[in-house]
Amino acid sequence: MTAIIGGLGAAVLWAVATLCSSRSSRMLGSRVVLGWVMVVGVVIALPVAIVSPPPDTLAPSTLVLLGIAGICYVIGLQCTYAGLRIGKVSIVAPIVATEGAVAAVIAIALGDSVGLVAGLMLAAIAAGVVLSTLEPGRTDVAAGDFDVVIDAIDDAPPIQAGRPIDPTVRTATGERPIDTRRATIFAIGGALFFGVGLVASGRAASLVPVAWVALSARLVGVLVVVIPLVMQGRLRLTRLALPLVVLAGAGEVLGSMLSAWGSRESIPITAVMGSQFAAIAAVVAFLLFGERLGRLQVAGVVLIVTGVTLLAAVTA
């Protein structure tokens, strides 16, 4: 049950982080939000890592696993943010949510075993995750400008200088406001990097405290994201965005700790459970902001609940 509890707990926390980061990205920009998420993560994980009992030995291979987990996490998150900046949530989210399936396949290929029934339930849950994040057809709005409150009640096209933005016209930087092909490529990259990172962090968590695993990823983020932003004078923060980035950073790092803890029992199960963050975010948006769920999304949620229930019964 540890894998199920850890994965589901991580999914809830990552869903909170997703909702908060989508709103704060509108205020500050995706890369700045990523930087603050790393800073908050270090502030939370560092004290926990300090008080955690160290392992008897620290092999070079363990450091390699921590490095791989950290690098994959930062690159995966950057790919996801890049895809959301130029693509629709309904396209990017379901692709990134397959990270759990990617991690499960990699872990099983490396020797982790799951029973036939549990494997079928994991496949059903992964399919439910994809279905639950397929939004009904809506106006093309780049997710970098996604607002969880406004978009819930306003389906009008994005406005700039009093006129609707034409998704086929390039911006001043040469990018298209909506570029589905590039967004898809970024999302695939995010899913692959997250999948590899989940396996690496899961294996590292069996060798060192989970706080060490979470902290290593945030330290990599500080080096490659935060320090460059500080040197460029771009790491800004507003009063309205402050609680959002704190919640996003806390949700990310605590979710990572729970995921690493659950992976000590089973990487495939924890990874697929954790990938439900997108489905949970969709349900929360429906309850809080009145976003309607399409038939495929409802079917996906039902499939997830059924799969989780049967998986818990099988593994109990």
Topology record:
Elements: H1 2-28, H2 30-51, H3 60-86, H4 89-96, H5 99-109, H6 116-132, H7 150-153, E1 159-160, E2 163-164, H8 180-205, H9 210-231, H10 242-263, H11 267-274, H12 277-289, H13 295-315
Antiparallel strand pairs: 1-2
Helix pairs in contact: 1-2, 1-10, 1-11, 1-12, 2-9, 2-10, 3-8, 3-9, 4-8, 5-8, 5-11, 6-11, 6-13, 8-10, 9-10, 10-11
Count of DSSP helices?
13
Q: Which class best fits the helix and strand makeup?
A: mainly alpha
**Low-confidence segments, ≥5 residues, pLDDT <50?**
138-168, 170-176
User: What is the rounded distance between the termini?
Assistant: 6 Å
Radius of gyration, in angstroms, nearest whole number: 19 Å
Biggest sheet descriptor = 2 strands, antiparallel
Percent helix, as a range, is over 70%
The beta-strand count equals 2
Q: State the order of secondary-structure elements, H for helix, E for strand.
A: HHHHHHHEEHHHHHH
Anisotropy-based shape: globular
In percent, how much strand structure appears in the residues?
under 5%
Strand order of the largest sheet: 1-2
Mean pLDDT rating: 77
Report on the architecture of this protein:
- The protein is mostly helical and 316 residues long.
- Helix content is 72%, strand content 1%.
- The chain is built from 13 helices and 2 strands, in the order αααααααββαααααα.
- A two-stranded antiparallel ribbon has the order 1-2.
- The chain is globular.
- Mean pLDDT is 77; it is low at 138-168 and 170-176.
Record keyword descriptors for this entry.
single chain, mainly alpha, two-stranded antiparallel sheet, 13 helices, 2 strands, 72% helix
